[in-house]
Write a structure and sequence with these properties.
The structure is a single chain. The chain has no helices and 18 strands. It has 154 residues and is mostly beta strands. It is globular and about 50 Å long.
Length: 154
């Protein structure tokens, strides 16, 4: 990823710890991660994530802790060491066509089922190129969770 556009310059809140945009998307680096009720290991575990590379949205920061939520709105506070800046997305359509180019008329190169986690390669205003396994293709951004509607990057 070389360029990133987030819409209106300066319009997005920044994290008090990292000075990175809030909200922003990340992925689960670990094979398992606990989302806690508060920022610290003494807080109860509210949620356990068990899918490495699952996309999560950071909605807050406190020291080494990040408040995250998943596609269902569930989440909590996770230690930053469990998270990665590598971008992944979740396929939300029941059966999603992956196209050769960012056009509904282009050749379909593969299909992905709902719930597939794919790596985010690049995005235009309406389409994103994703990679799942050895397959790479373009999907409409509206069928993905883990990317902002105004994100454009290559």
């Amino acid at each position: 990823m070389t360029a990133l556009s987030l819409g209106v310059a300066g319009a997005q809140e920044r994290g008090s710890v990292t000075n990175l945009p809030i909200p922003r998307y990340v992925s689960l680096k670990a094979a398992e991660g606990y989302a806690r009720h508060g920022p610290g290991q003494t807080h109860r575990i509210d949620w356990v994530y068990k899918h490495r590379n699952q996309p999560l949205e950071i909605t807050g920061e406190y020291g080494h802790w990040r408040r995250v939520r998943d596609q269902d709105g569930m989440g909590g506070w996770m230690h930053y060491s469990l998270l990665s800046g590598v971008r992944t997305v979740l396929i939300e359509a029941e059966m999603q066509n992956l196209h050769r180019s960012p056009s509904a008329e282009s050749q379909v190169v593969a299909h992905a089922e709902r719930g597939v986690i794919a790596w985010l390669e690049q995005c235009t205003l309406d389409w994103c190129q994703v990679k799942a396994g050895r397959v790479k293709g373009w999907v409409q951004k509206s069928t993905l969770w883990g990317v902002r509607t105004d994100e454009v990057f290559e």
